[in-house]
Amino acid sequence: MNRLRRLPIDVWFEPLVILVIGIGYVLWYRSTTFTPTEQASLAWANLQTTILEHVKLTVVATLIVVVVAIPLGIALTRPALRRLEPIAVNVANIGQAAPAVGLLVLFTFWLGTGFRTAIVGLVVYAILPILQNTIVGLRQVDHRTIEASRGIGYSGARTLFQVELPLAVPVILNGVRTALVILVGTATLSTFIGATSLGTLITTGVTLFLPKLLISGAILVGLLALIIDWLGRLVELAATPRGVA
Question: What predicted TM-score, i.e. pTM, was given to this entire model?
């Protein structure tokens, strides 16, 4: 019981919110009459494929962003490349500042439509939070701690991996969570360039004036974002070294 009390409130409160919204949606779904088009779109066979494709878009884009942004963030905190940090952050900020739909459409002129183009657009759009948090997380490590580790004979690489990165983990993972939530929402727009996602439900609902389908798509995207955010929080909590807030 004491262990439960020590858990951050979002670790146990967010699943309750997910459960309440999920049960509410199921009850609404069972008591609502749908048109044939809505029934076809929300049939489990079709819905399962749509959800899995949306998750696939989100996960693949996140993995690519992590592989690119974290090493780049580490490199930009090293003395040799520190002067390039403002340039890199500003370039990443262009992707974040650009309208997501416009960004995806622009990439279609270069790469065509489909899954690959959606991934490229999502990666460009979500790289800033992880890059910035990696830089901030490493910069906030106390210089005295770094000097102490070097003083006991640690090399620069060993100090980075055994001292700096563990202390920066909470901030870096917070950036990953932020990117995940951004990607879940932005992935809905990939339907405009021919990639399957939950955005298909929303756009179909708008185009054919089917408000129940539109509501279903919006609720499912919201639930997916909450679930992924919660799972990311659990990973963040498990990966944070003891004694590090």
Answer: 0.88
The predicted-structure confidence for 11-68, as pLDDT tens digits, reads as follows 888 999 999 999 999 999 999 999 999 999 999 888 999 999 999 999 999 999 999 9
Question: Are 18 and 226 spatial neighbours (Cβ–Cβ below 8 Å)?
Answer: yes
Higher pLDDT, 16 or 236: 16
Task: Specify whether the CB–CB gap between 146 and 104 falls below 8 A.
Answer: no
What does the block give as tokens for 150?
A: 């070097």
Q: Nearest CA to 225 among 184, 175, 176?
A: 184
With tokens 């948090």, the residue in question is 133
Q: What is the pLDDT of residue 244?
A: 57
Orientation angle between helical segments 115-139 and 165-186, nearest 10 degrees: 150
- Evaluate whether 170 touches 236 at the Cβ level (below 8 Å): yes
DSSP assignment of 161-225: IIIIHHHHHHHHHHHHHHHHHHHHHHGGGGGGGT--STHHHHHHHHHTT-HHHHHHHHHHHHHHH
Residue 177 CA to residue 9 CA, distance in Å, equals 17
d(CA 178, CA 126): 9
167-207 residue pLDDT tens: 999 999 999 999 999 999 999 989 988 888 999 999 999 98
Alpha-carbon distance of 137 to 216, in angstroms, equals 38
